[in-house]
Amino acid sequence: MKMLRSKRQVGVYGQSVNSRLSIPLGKHATVFQAEVYAIIACVHEIETQDRPEKYISICSDSQAALKALQAAKTTSPLVQQCQQALNDLST
Fold first, then answer.
1. What are the boundaries of each domain within the chain?
2. Is 24 exposed, middle or buried (0-12, 13-18, 19+ CB in 10 A)?
3. What is the DSSP string of 10-41?
4. Between the CA atoms of 36, 43, 48 and 17, what dihedral angle is there, to the nearest 10 degrees?
5. Rounded CA gap, 36 and 44, in Å?
């Protein structure tokens, strides 16, 4: 994630397809929200690719986002959306 003129953007890079995305989130998004949204963006990008790979890796250095995604219960709609997207991708 990077900051530009006090607006947050999510940066996503796909090594196997040499793809880069930059998605503006607005100036009120938290770093946590941006990190979770970056994972959602990865899932959506993977879903748009017609690739035969059976195994996919999504890397994040956000311990808070990863712990939130592992939690059995969450009250965050964004985290719930990300959990659902990851579950859908895995089936």
1. 2-90
2. exposed
3. EEEEETTTTEEEEEEEETT--HHHHHHHHHHH
4. 100
5. 13
Output the CA torsion 61→70→10→42 (10° steps).
100
Taking the C-alpha atoms of residue 15 and residue 18, their distance in angstroms, rounded to an integer, is: 5
First to last CA, the chain: 28
The superfamily (CATH) of domain 2-90 is Ribonuclease H-like superfamily/Ribonuclease H (3.30.420.10)
- Mean pLDDT per 10-residue segment, the chain (91 residues): 52 71 80 91 85 82 95 95 94 82
- The pTM of the full predicted model, rounded to 2 decimals, is 0.80
Position 11 scores a pLDDT of 75
